[in-house]
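tool=predict chain=A
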Amino acid sequence: MEKLWSPWRSQYIDSFKDKQPASGCFLCDCSKLDVADNSNLLVHKGELTFTILNLYPYNNGHLMVVPHRHTSDLLSLSKAENLEIMDRIQLCCRALYEVMKPEGYNIGANLGKAAGAGVEDHIHFHVVPRWNGDTNFMPVLGEVKVISQDLQLTKLNLLAAFKKLI
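tool=predict ok
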């Protein structure tokens, strides 16, 4: 197996050290935002979770499903939270397919700093749309990822899809 080094990832993780949100947790602050406000990346709010576009996406349409409750412990999630998280992950996949027609998805959570969590104190689940050949020479050789659509346009497209699907 060949290794692909991504030193820019540690720089991204380290960038959070100097930025303290009002509540101490930017995800908790995001849970209070309004979906209709186009100055943020929130695309859906549920009773126990919210869904937001990742500001530093791995691919176009990279979403995160986040419980409103501040916890880093997967085992502390209630059955109701687990159910809504999975329901929202499925909704994300349906909405992304409606808008972008991905050929696959990476879905998961990075639990703890050792697992690569950029935000380790508030659990969140990534839904990353994937296409055959979406890893090209740019990230491999140039250490840069090309995101070809503006996040606000992606948000507007996903809002329409979520509204249609709910």
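Residues 35-165 form a domain with the HIT family, subunit A fold (CATH 3.30.428.10). The chain has a mean pLDDT of 84.
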